[in-house]
């Protein structure tokens, strides 16, 4: 695997607060990479800056070798970096199929003249969008709701629809902002399975999430931020046992962990 997304030395301050203080990391193509850290560590600022929703003070972002630093969000999306948001954004009154058709249309090569004249380009765009929609809906396990209004779906299922919408234009990577926040715990597994299925089909994800168990179950690589800096990165197993991560998250110092072990012995 090679890096599809490379961020180097990201810097962003808010009136003296260093939200990002030189953060660098890579996301490998075909991976699920997690970005975690305690409250205020800079996760949201990082993904907002990467996806063009905030301006960086410094640093670079490259996508598939192309410099996309500080481009407007819509051009970053067009370059192949899509994102989802903490709060779900779907059209409740429209069917799942229509939600996905609208998502595809934003990037459609066919214009209104093609549509008016029903050109071959228009017919091909509609056909490939429907094929993509059916494939994605199957991968997220919602095929029985394809024609149903999305309003009837659970919050977790709507999050999956928003994810499928982000995937419609065949992006190089999707950045997910807290995909299981607010989701009923009994539904979290559905999202986990859907992401695994999509990843097996070749999709790449960068996930920001507070639910560390979800991240460590799912991710090949985990990056940990603390106070605007990268504290560490590694596999889920490495992160789980890293004393610096335990301290940052739980306030457990290596000495306390050792004392606990001695006490239990
Ligand atoms: N618009 C803003 N104005 C001023 N300070 C901000 C702003 N946005 C973020 N910050 C500060 O920047 C730092 C990083 O915030 P950020 O929201 O990126 O962290 P986070 O890891 O996403 O936190 P959380 O997990 O609580 O969402 C924090 O100290 C925060 O208070």
TrEMBL record:
Keywords: ATP-binding, Nucleotide-binding, Transport
Domain ABC transporter: start-end pairs: 5-252
CDD domains per UniProt: ABC_Mj1267_LivG_branched
One Gene Ontology cellular component annotation held by this UniProt entry: plasma membrane
Listed InterPro entries: AAA+_ATPase, ABC_AA/LPS_Transport, ABC_transporter-like_ATP-bd, ABC_transporter-like_CS, BCA_ABC_TP_C, P-loop_NTPase
GO molecular function, one term: ATP hydrolysis activity
Domain of life: Bacteria
Family: Belongs to the ABC transporter superfamily.
Protein's UniProt name: Branched-chain amino acid transport system ATP-binding protein
Provenance organism: Enhydrobacter aerosaccus
Biological classification of the source: Bacteria, Pseudomonadati, Pseudomonadota, Alphaproteobacteria, Hyphomicrobiales
């Amino acid at each position: 695997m090679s890096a599809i997304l490379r961020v180097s030395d990201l810097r962003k301050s808010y009136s003296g607060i260093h939200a990002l203080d030189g953060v660098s990391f890579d996301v490998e193509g075909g991976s699920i990479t997690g970005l975690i850290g305690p409250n205020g560590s800079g996760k949201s600022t990082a993904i907002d800056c990467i996806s063009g929703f905030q301006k960086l003070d410094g640093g670079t972002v490259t996508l598939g070798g192309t410099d996309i630093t500080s481009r407007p969000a819509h051009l970053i999306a067009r370059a192949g970096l899509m994102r989802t948001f903490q709060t779900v954004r779907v059209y409740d009154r429209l069917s799942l199929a229509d939600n996905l058709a609208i998502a595809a249309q934003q990037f459609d090569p066919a214009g209104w003249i093609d549509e008016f004249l029903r050109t071959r380009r228009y017919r091909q765009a509609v056909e490939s969008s429907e094929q993509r929609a059916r494939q994605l809906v199957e991968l997220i396990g919602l095929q029985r709701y394809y024609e149903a209004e999305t309003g009837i779906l659970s919050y977790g299922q709507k999050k999956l629809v928003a994810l499928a919408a982000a995937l419609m234009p065949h992006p190089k990577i999707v950045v997910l902002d807290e995909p299981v926040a607010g989701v009923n715990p009994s539904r979290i597994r559905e999202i986990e399975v859907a992401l695994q299925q999509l990843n097996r089909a070749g999709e790449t994800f960068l996930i920001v999430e507070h639910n560390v168990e979800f991240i460590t179950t799912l991710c090949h690589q985990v990056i940990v931020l603390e106070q605007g800096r990268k504290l560490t990165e590694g596999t889920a197993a490495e992160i789980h046992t890293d004393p610096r991560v335990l301290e940052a998250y739980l306030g457990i110092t290596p000495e306390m962990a050792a004392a606990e072990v001695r006490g239990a012995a």
